[in-house]
Amino acid sequence: PEFCISLLPESFSGLMEDLSGCEWGDLIEIRMDYLQEVDFRAIRQATDKRIIVTCRTSSEGGFYSGSISAIIPLYQAAIDNGMDYIDVSYSEAKQLLNKLSLKDSTKVILSHQGGERDPAVLQKLLVNMLSLPEDVYKLVFTAAEENDITIAFELIDFAQTEGVKFVIHAMGIPGKPSRILGAIRGNCWT
User: Fold this and answer.
1) 8-state DSSP, 121
2) 89 with 60: CB under 8 angstroms?
3) Cβ atoms of residues 151 and 139 within 8 Å
4) Biggest CA pair distance of the chain
5) Torsions phi, psi for 110 (to 5 deg)
6) Roughly how many angstroms between the first and final C-alpha of the chain, as a whole number?
């Protein structure tokens, strides 16, 4: 399994410094929550790692507080400059994806992060996400207790039967084992 390093820089100069310490990862997720302007060419020149560009709103545990329409130019610039993935929230996908000029070189991760941990609700959410044909499906929820990681494993089993690429795990201290075990069980990366 591959290892993804997630960065949440507060400035572009901070991001460039952070990139120099990411040699040991396979992919780098750059959270653009705080960044207004980004030089994607400089990012590409700074690393040969595959890059995931995402912007998390507060509703999904992120720090971006602007409008959804303001994210469109950010994602388009990422696509135009050859970033490997854009990670788009499922709740925003219908507003965003049809406004982007996608290219084969940039894959789409359709994601959901939230506190819901009811297995039936999460499986229905995953089914709904699969109705949008994207490259990778990411479903992350918050575990309240250690047994909640079994929910992640059930969702992984379901995703495998659907034949899709996925990243499914639980957040929080009780969910930590699902990141490692999920990678062994088929997640694209952890």
Assistant:
1) H
2) yes
3) no
4) 44
5) -95, 120
6) 7
**Cα 169 from Cα 142, distance rounded (Å):** 9
Beta strands in the chain (DSSP E): 4-7, 27-31, 50-54, 85-89, 107-114, 136-142, 165-171
Q: Give start and end residues of each alpha helix (H) in 40-97.
A: 40-46, 71-80, 90-96
Neighbours of 91 (CB within 10 A): 14
Q: What is the dihedral of CA 65, 67, 73, 79, to 10 degrees?
A: 70
Query: 126-140: per-residue pLDDT in tens?
Result: 999 999 999 999 999
Whether the pLDDT of residue 25 is over 90: the answer is yes
**Which two tokens mark 1?**
């399994």
Rg (CA), the chain: 16
Q: Which of 40, 35, 28, 23 is nearest to 62 (CA)?
A: 35
- Contact of 19 with 38, CB cutoff 8 Å: no
Give the separation between CA 58 and CA 92, rounded to whole angstroms: 13
pTM of the model: 0.95
Cβ density class 111-148: b for 16+ within 10 Å, e for less: bbbbeebebeebbebbeebbeeebebbbbbbbbeeeeb
Q: Which residues sit opposite 113 in a β-bridge?
A: 140
Planar angle of CA 32, 38, 39, nearest 5 degrees:
140
Which residue is associated with the tokens 């609700």?
121
